[in-house]
UniProtKB/TrEMBL annotation:
Keywords (A to Z) from UniProt: DNA-binding, Nucleus
Protein name as annotated: HTH CENPB-type domain-containing protein
Record-annotated HTH CENPB-type domain positions: 70-141
Source species: Chironomus riparius
Transmembrane spans: none
Keyword Transcription: no
Subcellular location: Nucleus
Residue intervals of the HTH psq-type domain: 6-57
Length: 227
């Protein structure tokens, strides 16, 4: 049975001031939320918060002169140029809700190598496994995902310790009450929190995918227009 890629749940990440500034710069340059979130292991809500605080971040960077500090970057593989282009292709496919299989990745990597006119190289399953680890991609069996419903995980909002240890009582949870909070919460934040909850508590994959599709639709409707 062929496999379809899905991302690994991300751990809490603390960005340096320099990284925060780079996140803002990448979004200003037109990079997608998917790309930035995966690159820095952060959630969509974190990116939006940084965009709102751009003035404070710029001021802090200038005041503290943090550019000399080391920063975290993705560990490069043996073929960084191939991996970079392959990951761009992956993001493009996921933005269009396309399914991506392991065989498709191997084939595309071979095509990219040929286009770059590099020495003959055939991507192996071992290389593919490491590539997916570097970009936080894993796999599930195709039988669990319909042909047009694959959605790239973009919400990595961290839960509090209380949320993580809270005993799950499905019978006491009302979906509507969990999603709706006081007026100050945005539709996207509500969708993010709901998706975090059902993902953390192992709800059926079909229901998680449905929530991801709803959340993506909200992003399309409310994505900030940067000048």
């Amino acid at each position: 049975m062929e496999e379809i890629l899905v991302p690994i749940k991300r751990k809490r990440v603390v960005l340096t001031l320099e990284q925060k500034l780079e996140v803002i710069k990448l979004k200003d340059e037109g990079k997608s939320f998917y790309d930035i979130a995966s690159r820095f292991n952060i959630g969509i809500s974190t990116i939006k918060d940084l965009l709102k605080k751009r003035s404070q971040i710029n001021e802090a960077v200038q005041k503290n002169k943090v550019f000399g500090f080391s920063r975290k970057t993705l560990r490069e593989g043996s073929r960084p140029d191939v991996e970079s282009l392959l990951y761009q292709w992956v993001c493009q496919q996921l933005d269009q809700d396309e399914i991506i299989t392991n065989n498709m990745l191997l084939t595309k990597a071979t095509e990219i190598t040929r286009d770059l006119k590099q020495e003959e190289w055939k991507p192996s399953n071992g290389w593919l496994s490491k590539f997916k680890q570097r970009y936080n991609l894993t796999a599930v069996k195709e039988e669990f995902v319909s042909a047009n419903s694959f959605i790239f995980e973009e919400s990595y909002k961290e839960e509090s310790e209380e949320d993580m240890t809270e005993e799950l009582k499905p019978e006491s949870i009302e979906l509507y009450n969990y999603a709706i909070e006081p007026p100050q919460i945005s539709p996207l934040e509500a969708a993010d929190r709901l998706l975090d909850y059902v993902t953390a508590h192992d709800f059926p994959l079909k229901e998680i995918i449905t929530l991801r599709m709803i959340r993506d639709r909200i992003i399309e409707m409310h994505e900030p227009k940067l000048e």
